[in-house]
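Q: What residues go here?
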């Protein structure tokens, strides 16, 4: 199975499983990518690019944009993160009063290579607002499991060493850490901005 196909296996499945699929005749259908009522998300204790301990509870009161990937990713991750952060910036320019109430977060699934220093260097490419988090393999596994993120170590590559296979969903989480919607990070910055405009209040 092609690597790009493996990486995208879980995102549609999550959307179908998590979004409410049935509505009564007088109810409007849920917004595209809605995750309300799903079990996506949960507590974690990770390490920031500055070496400080960061907990899920530290973001109480803020919306959170969450993406799992790794800095050595040759294709999918940088494109997804670029769309995610461009979407955030476009939305923030139109909603400056809400911008500080949304925290974009990038969590590595390759803690063996993604040290705090490496995460700091990488996230700087996408703007000052993106928070990079790493941690022990056990802590990363717990966080990924809570977000239904699939990942595994793949074969060696002559250019970047080993590659990681992983799902690539982007999540919008609410002020209390509850799941709200999928972010179309694999589609367009405009789509990401539209999701933020729909749900962030």
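A:
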């Amino acid at each position: 199975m092609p690597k790009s196909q493996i990486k995208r296996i879980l995102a549609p499945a999550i959307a179908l499983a998590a979004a409410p699929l049935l509505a009564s005749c007088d109810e409007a259908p849920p917004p595209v990518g809605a995750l309300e009522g799903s079990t996506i998300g949960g507590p974690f204790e990770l390490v920031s690019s500055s070496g400080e301990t960061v907990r899920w509870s530290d973001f109480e009161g803020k919306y959170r944009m969450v993406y799992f990937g790794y800095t050595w990713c040759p294709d999918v991750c940088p494109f997804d993160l670029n769309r995610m952060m461009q979407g955030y910036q476009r939305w923030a320019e139109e909603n400056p009063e809400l911008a500080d109430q949304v925290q974009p977060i990038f969590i590595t699934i390759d803690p063996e290579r993604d040290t705090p220093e490496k995460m700091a260097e990488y996230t700087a490419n996408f703007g000052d607002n993106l928070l990079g988090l790493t941690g022990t393999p056990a802590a990363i596994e717990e966080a990924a499991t809570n977000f239904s993120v699939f990942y595994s170590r793949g074969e060696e590559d002559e250019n970047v060493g080993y590659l990681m296979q992983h799902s690539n969903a982007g999540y919008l989480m609410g002020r209390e850490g509850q799941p709200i919607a999928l972010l179309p990070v694999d589609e367009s910055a405009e789509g990401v901005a539209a999701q933020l405009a729909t749900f962030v209040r």
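A: Context that may help when evaluating the design: The beta strands are 45-48, 53-55, 63-69, 102-108, 131-134, 151-157, 161-166, 170-173, 179-183. The chain has one domain: 3-20+46-199.
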